[in-house]
Amino acid sequence: MTQTEVGYVELIEAARHPEHVVTLAFAGLIALAPQRPSPYDVPIAALDDAALAAIRERYFPDLQCPLKAYAGASPPQSIDEFEDLLAMLLEHRSVADQEGTWLAHAVATACMGANHLWQDMGLPNRAALSMLIKHHFTSLAERNSGDMKWKKFFYRQLCEREGLLMCNSPSCGNCSDYLQCFGPEDATSFFVRDGGPYLA
Q: How many domains does the structure of the chain reveal?
């Protein structure tokens, strides 16, 4: 295990509130860092060591090892839409506080993964992700009135900001990609857990 890799069980056992959806999101994202492509194979992209230390203290106070931002001296340059996603999420925070900022970085980081967004955040299911987004990014969640898959929805929002269309059909119901955007997200969580409710 490298200094940027921390196991999910280790994080949950060190957590102040191990059933809280925000704690679960941070734990899953941090634990899944090695599965993301570089430069996003870090605990949470574009957060420095001080921010990660604050997350560790607030959510995982019993964690023995530090969370490190980058192995190198400086963060790598962004090569894709990460910065645009982050800016959009920051703009739509329900509360412009530290937690909202950290979650914006977390969601944008998870979007760089290759699976459903709830899986790439290490959450138990899509419902937990939807709860988190509705609570912490309310104005953005309200735009997803058709319950589009979250990652698709975020990219659609970016395209609309740039005046681009994802589909040439006049409505989503007529689009050939409908099932890719709105179909079921039948999949297994990376972390199977027993326990109580997931609190927003």
A: 1
